[in-house]
Write a sequence for this structure.
């Protein structure tokens, strides 16, 4: 219960700070910089060196890819039966319906519904999700925009220089050569800032104006993101007889709302940013209900 209270207080605090203009307009950028450059790499160093890689970890590796592929097909089919939808809108919806918020929302909710040690599994989902956004996601954004040209070198550079990706690689490699255990306390303290700061940052950015006029597109994106995407991974798990905590955490991560950065990319490439940002904001609010339902399914249904 304490974790849920913390989640609510952090988001509400962010909303109140924004409405009352207590912080500068772009204060969330500084908070996000701390999370991306310091806190998320610390999470990698805290958990990844202790993971024993087995074939069971193939699910958290492949799940974000499956969700992306089926999401792309889902929106492509929807555009085909609704030809009036612009290419830019379709591109924004592909980004916002197919990429999960596996860290800023996923990490706090996993700690609330399960336990902190399960973050090791969530990190794997998070790194694959970011890689998808930084590669295929950027390519989709560029092709959906009328003003941008594909730059392969820039795509590769964005992936290789992203701090959490670097942190993930170093966390897997360095412990093989250097004893990092004296730094465990430091990593623990830094990693502990992810949840509260991420939720506060989300509160600073939440906006809902003009949602009713875009309800059709918002509904299509969120039905897939919050319901069909985790259901897809659940069905795959059932087909292959996958059970246990790794399977549960993976399905739960795929039930997260839209990745915040996907909305940023949609805005950057002018992919109907109004719809994209509404999908992000409304999805976050609805996810507190839908993830609770998914937790009940995963905990008490006996399916996995």
């Amino acid at each position: 219960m304490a974790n849920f209270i913390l989640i609510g207080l952090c988001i509400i605090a962010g909303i109140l700070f924004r409405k009352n203009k207590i912080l500068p307009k772009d204060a969330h950028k500084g908070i996000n910089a701390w999370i991306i450059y310091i806190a998320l790499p610390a999470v990698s160093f805290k958990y990844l060196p202790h993971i024993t890689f087995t074939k069971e970890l193939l699910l958290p590796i492949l799940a974000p890819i499956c969700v992306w592929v089926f999401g792309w097909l889902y929106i492509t089919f929807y555009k085909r039966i609704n030809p009036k939808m612009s290419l830019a809108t379709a591109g924004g919806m592909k980004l916002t319906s197919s990429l999960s918020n596996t860290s800023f929302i996923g990490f706090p909710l996993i700690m609330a519904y399960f336990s902190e040690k399960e973050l090791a599994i969530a990190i794997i989902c998070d790194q694959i999700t970011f890689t998808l956004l930084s590669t295929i996601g950027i390519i989709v954004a560029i092709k959906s925009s009328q003003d941008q040209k594909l730059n392969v070198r820039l795509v590769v550079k964005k992936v290789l220089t992203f701090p959490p990706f670097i942190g993930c690689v170093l966390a897997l490699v360095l412990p093989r050569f250097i004893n990092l255990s004296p730094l465990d306390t430091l990593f623990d303290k830094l990693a502990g800032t992810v949840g509260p700061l991420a939720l506060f940052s989300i509160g600073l950015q939440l906006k809902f104006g003009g949602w009713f006029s875009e309800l059709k597109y918002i509904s299509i994106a969120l039905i897939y993101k919050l319901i069909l995407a985790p259901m897809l991974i659940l069905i795959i798990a059932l087909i292959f007889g996958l059970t246990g905590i790794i399977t549960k955490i993976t399905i739960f991560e795929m039930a997260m709302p839209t990745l915040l950065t996907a909305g940023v990319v949609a805005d950057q490439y002018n992919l109907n940013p109004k719809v994209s940002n509404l999908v992000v904001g409304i999805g976050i609010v609805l996810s507190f209900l839908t993830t609770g339902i998914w937790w009940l399914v995963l905990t008490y249904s006996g399916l996995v």
The mean pLDDT is 88.
